[in-house]
Each structure stands twice: as C-alpha cells, then as structure tokens.
C-alpha cells in the first residue's frame, strides 16, 4: 500500500517553473532545491527524473528495478507504457532504435533514487519503479490528482503540465551538449543501438548529467546561505 501524497513537490524537490510561456522557458518560478530530503511519495522521484533526464511519462511508468543502475547513476530505457481505450496497460517497444537508450542522471539524485527503491518500488528485479497510490500500476489518471495538488501547493501555474518537465530536461541538458548528444539522450535520433552505447562509453552523457548536478549543488548552496 502506498499512501497518496498531497504535496510531493513542494518542500524537498527542485524548483518547478511557476509559469511556462509559449516558449516554455524553464525554472521561472520560486521554490527550493532539496534532493536528498525525506521522500514522502511514490511519485516524488517521478517528477525529479522527468526534469533531470527528460524521460516521458510512459518511459518512467515502465521502468523496472533492473533498469536502474545505482552504481553509475543511469537509467536504461527499454520500453514505454501505453494505455488502451479499455484502460488496459501494456508496454510497447520504442518507435525507433533511438528510443532504447541509457540516460545518465545527476549523482546528486542518488540518495533520492535509493530511498525510493527501498520504500516505494515494486518487489524483485522486474518490479516497477513507480507504482500507483494503492500499490498497483502507475497510470496517468491516478497520477494526475497528485500532480495537480502538488502543482497548486507549489504555486505553479495551472497551465504547467507534467510533460513540460521533459522540455525542462531538454533545455537544461542542451547547455554544453552537441545536437547529436542531445538527440541521443532524449531518444530523438535513429542511430543503431551500438552507437548509443558507444556514446555512453565516451563519457559525454555522464558529463551532461554532471553539469545538471552542478546546478543542483549551486542552488542548494544558495538556499542554505539564504536560510
């Protein structure tokens, strides 16, 4: 049983944009960066990873424990969850080879990831990383209430939607990344899978994640000084 949370993004998560205009400018609102704080919700990490890896909701919902590499701070995207008109959920293969990809995340989020795996993820290597409020499959309908409530408590504009976090991740990662690196990270290109793994071995994806981590450290330090 996983209790439904009512403000998972308000006090212990990176700042969310209070409003995203037509250009989708990220990080325009007030808030606090608190990765590594107490986890209160099965969906808390969902928003963090959406913002700092750029994964789609379906990709996050289909993640299994075996897809999370805590040693190298990376996620392996292999599939995406989809929902039929009947409400049945199923995992589908990516539309192209580029959709199957490893994505590094900032090492600063490792405490959040490990704590989430210990307290909220499904059991076993094939257990889902993210579950619904009653311990079942996470779906858009049972996530929406938590997202709207958290967005309201964080004073984020009502026209900011969960998919906007993916755009935020794209924007943050674009700093210092080449077009090809960014396309590979976000699953937007069509190279063979071997090229994706070669890209990770090169260390550039880790460098991208490390830059995102430096943003977390800088903001967290600023908040500590201000307090």
Describe the protein's architecture and organization:
- This protein is mainly alpha-helical.
- Helix content is 40%, strand content 8%.
- The protein contains eight helices and five strands.
- It has helices at 44-53, 57-61, 110-119, 140-153, 163-174, 179-186, 193-201, 204-226, and strands at 68-69, 74-77, 80-83, 89-92, 101-104.
- The strands form two sheets. The chain has a three-stranded antiparallel sheet. A two-stranded antiparallel sheet has the order 3-4.
- It is globular and about 45 Å long.
- The model is unreliable at 1-40 and 190-201 (pLDDT under 50).
How would you summarize this macromolecular structure in one to three sentences?
The chain has 227 residues and is mainly α. The protein is 40% helix and 8% strand.
How large is the share of residues in beta strands? Answer: 5-15%
Task: Quote the distance from N terminus to C terminus.
Answer: 36 Å
The strand line-up of the biggest sheet is 1-2-5
Unreliable stretches (pLDDT < 50, length at least 5) are 1-40, 190-201
Figure out the total of helices.
8
The average pLDDT score comes to 75
The secondary-structure element order is HHEEEEEHHHHHH
Number of strands: 5
Structural class: mainly alpha
Query: How many strands, what sense, and barrel or not for the largest sheet?
Result: 3 strands, antiparallel
């Amino acid at each position: 049983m996983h209790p439904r949370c009512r403000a998972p993004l308000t006090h212990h998560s990176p700042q969310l944009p209070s409003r995203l205009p037509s250009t989708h400018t990220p990080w325009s609102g007030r808030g606090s960066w608190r990765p590594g704080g107490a986890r209160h919700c099965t969906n808390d990490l969902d928003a963090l990873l959406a913002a700092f890896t750029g994964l789609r909701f379906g990709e996050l919902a289909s993640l299994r424990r075996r897809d999370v590499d805590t040693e190298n701070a990376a996620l392996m995207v292999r599939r995406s969850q989809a929902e039929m008109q009947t409400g049945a959920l199923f995992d589908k293969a990516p539309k192209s080879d580029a959709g199957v990809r490893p994505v590094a995340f900032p090492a600063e989020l490792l405490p959040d990831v490990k704590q989430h795996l210990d307290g909220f993820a499904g059991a076993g290597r094939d257990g889902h990383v993210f579950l619904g409020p009653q311990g079942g499959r996470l779906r858009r309908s049972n996530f929406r209430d938590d997202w709207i409530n958290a967005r309201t408590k964080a004073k984020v504009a009502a026209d900011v939607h969960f998919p906007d976090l993916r755009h935020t991740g794209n924007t943050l990662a674009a700093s210092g990344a080449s077009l090809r690196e960014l396309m590979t990270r976000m699953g937007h290109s069509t190279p063979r899978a071997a090229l994706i793994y070669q890209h990770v071995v090169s260390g550039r994806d880790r460098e991208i994640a490390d830059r995102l981590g430096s943003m977390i450290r800088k903001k967290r330090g600023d908040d500590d000084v201000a307090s």
